[in-house]
Amino acid sequence: MAAPQGQSGEEREKSKRIGALAGLAPFILPYKWLVVLAGMALVLTATVSLILPLAVRRVVDGFETENAQLLDSYFSAALAIAGLLALGTGLRYYLVTRLGERVVADIRKAVFDRMIGMSPAFYEKVMTGEVLSRITTDTTLILSVIGSSVSVALRNVLIFLGGLVLMLLTSAKLTGMVLLLVPAVIVPIIVLGRRLRALSRENQDWIAASSGSASEALLSVQTVQAFTHEAQSRASFADVTERAFVSARKRIGTRAVMTIIVIFLVFSGVVGVLWIGARDVRADVMSVGELVQFVIYSVMVAGAVGALSEIWGELQRAAGATERLVDLLHAEDSVKDPAQPRTLPEPVKGAIGFEGVTFHYPTRPSQSALSGINLDVKPGETIALVGPSGAGKSTIIQLLLRFYDPQQGRVTLDGISLCDVTRAEFRHHVALVPQDPVIFADTARENIRFGRPDASDAEVEAAARAAAAHDFLARLPDGYDSYVGERGLMLSGGQKQRIAIARAILRDAPVLLLDEATSALDAESERAVQHAVDEMSADRTTIIVAHRLATVKKADRIVVFEEGRIVAEGTHDALVAEGGLYARLARLQFTEGVEDAA
Ligand SMILES: Nc1ncnc2c1ncn2[C@@H]1O[C@H](COP(=O)(O)OP(=O)(O)OP(=O)(O)O)[C@@H](O)[C@H]1O
Ligand SMILES: [Mg+2]
Q1: One GO term of the cellular component aspect (predicted)?
Q2: Crossing angle, helix 523-537 and helix 493-507, to 10 degrees?
Q3: Which of 325, 421, 501, 510 could make an S-S bridge to 350, C-beta 3.0–4.6 Å?
């Protein structure tokens, strides 16, 4: 399997290391007060931790001064310090974790807001499951960073710096020796850190790919099982999951090596320095209390370095995740709303125009789906698009909804190019029954109401009646309130279609688009729906795509498509008389049955 998510290695190289975390700034900024408070708690606890060894030295050396009262006061001071430490730590935990949760919730919403508005071209290249993984797993990484790692890192930086200064004050000679060891520790952190970063990103990519693979198979579980494809599905999911594991193992291994090297170097250095310190104490150059204090500080500093090297890896993982989410947030959409949108003159009449439209799908630049289409639909007119499968009929509808922009020519509504108004504005005036009816995991009622969220129950029912859906809906166990399952799993094909039609009827828009809307209906339901469609289309612009010519016979005009071009147009009778492709299709459909019967 190729590297997941069509990103080239070059782009990966460009990844801006820890700096990518800056992408989080816009999300953190609104909560700067939380950050300030958390920062204060952090500085408080770090300071207190740094003071603690001073108190310890006093206590140790105090045994010799034999002043009982002073000793008491040192112990009560130590107690107060412990209290401050506990309070500060708790406060920091609360503030920082809360900030993390808040920011992650905001990021999830922002990414979803962006994704739900992306045009279909985007999803031709990105798997939905991958996007979902970004929104869930990647944000979890960010949560762990904002909600803990960053504050732990800052705390350790403070401890490191403060501890170093205090070590210096305690014994400049010993500190100097410790500092000589620093480069030895930093070098492996930098070298291995670079490798860690690449591995983290690779790991996240494979996790996302494995979600993508799982969601695709699970969404089509019936087809998978019907074709006894489970073994292949299992194998391909296992494959990406194993790759995710392998890249995780490499990442963990690298980090483990880094931890071993760093901890060993740091502590062996401390031991060496202590050895020298112990000799100083024996030579009376240093008090026992001072040595103890120095030991505590150097252990603190060493611990801080160890913690930082560990957190570094985590920060890098989060940087990778942030980068990916920011990529999604700024993903280019091939279809954009204009900067200065015009508004459609009210009321919208529903005149549709295709002016010299040539179009190929973005993923198939060499193959035109439509070429040189000129089509004028007058307000209130009903036109039918017919033609062989793959001729471009659904593509006309996709362009009418501006899911894509044509490479040449323009599509207009009431004379205004769709590119000059916002998509939301004109889509408001369009009702669609798509070729594959889409049903949501909700009740039948809410599925119909999707067409117009403010519709009353009575209006929903009226729409259902018009779509010949009322009878079957009323017979469901909970009537209109029956749950219909994910993607309408609990409904028949024809029932789904009727709900989709009812939804479009309820929308009550001046332009009605029906793409094979009645293809799954029995003759009787189709006649009933046809009747409803006829009534609806009387006063609105209607475009019907149908293979069954009986359903389009009554259209004002029939437009015949073949290989992305309009090859004929006219009424049923005129086209039959003309004797072209349409006449051939009509002969097949209208006479074959008779011949069979004869
Ligand atoms: N998203 C897409 N990306 C690339 N090519 C596409 C896409 N959708 C459709 N096509 C191609 O565009 C051409 C026209 O497809 P279209 O869906 O418009 O056909 P149609 O006339 O609606 O056919 P049918 O009657 O089978 O529904 C076909 O060759 C199809 O393979
Ligand atoms: Mg189609």
Answers
A1: plasma membrane
A2: 10
A3: 510
Q: What CATH number is associated with residue 208?
A: 1.20.1560.10
553 three-class SS: coil
Residues 197 and 287 in one domain: yes
CA-closest residue to ligand 1 atom 6: 361
Do 488 and 515 fall within a single domain?
Answer: no
Percentages helix, strand, coil for the chain (3-state, rounded to 5) are: 65, 10, 25
Helix axes 32-65, 68-116, angle to 10 degrees: 160
Domain hosting 457: range is 437-508
Neighbour-count burial of 593, counting CB atoms closer than 10 A to its CB (0-12 exposed, 13-18 middle, 19+ buried): exposed
Interval 540-580: pLDDT, tens:
899 999 888 888 888 899 999 999 999 999 998 898 888 88
CATH code for the domain in which residue 473 is found: 3.40.50.300
Shared domain for 133 and 182, answered yes or no, is yes
- State which residues of the chain have pLDDT below 50: 1-16, 594-598
Contact 364 CB / ligand 1 (< 6 Å): yes
Beta bridge partners of 568: 560
361 lines ligand 1 (CB under 6 A): yes
Is position 136 within any domain?
yes
- Relative to the alpha carbon of 396, which ligand is closest? 1
Structure-block tokens of residue 198:
């690449």
DSSP label at residue 365: T
User: Does ligand 1 lie within 6 Å of residue 369's CB atom?
Assistant: yes
Report strand pairing: 352-359 vs 408-413: antiparallel
* Residues 306, 268 within the same domain: yes
pTM of structure: 0.77
* Burial category of 21 from C-beta neighbours within 10 Å (exposed 0-12, middle 13-18, buried 19 and up): buried
For ligand 1, atom 29: residue with the closest CA: 390
Has residue 535 been placed in a domain?
A: yes
Residue 430: φ, ψ to 5°: -125, 135
pLDDT score, position 594: 47
Q: What is the DSSP letter of 341?
A: -
- From 329, 350, 369, the end of a domain falls on 329
- 75 and 193 in a single domain? The answer is yes
Distances (CA, A) of 274 to 179, 280, 285, 315, 529: 14, 9, 14, 33, 91
SS3 208: helix
Q: Are residues 208 and 287 in the same domain?
A: yes
Number of domains in the chain: 3
Amino acid 493: pLDDT: 83
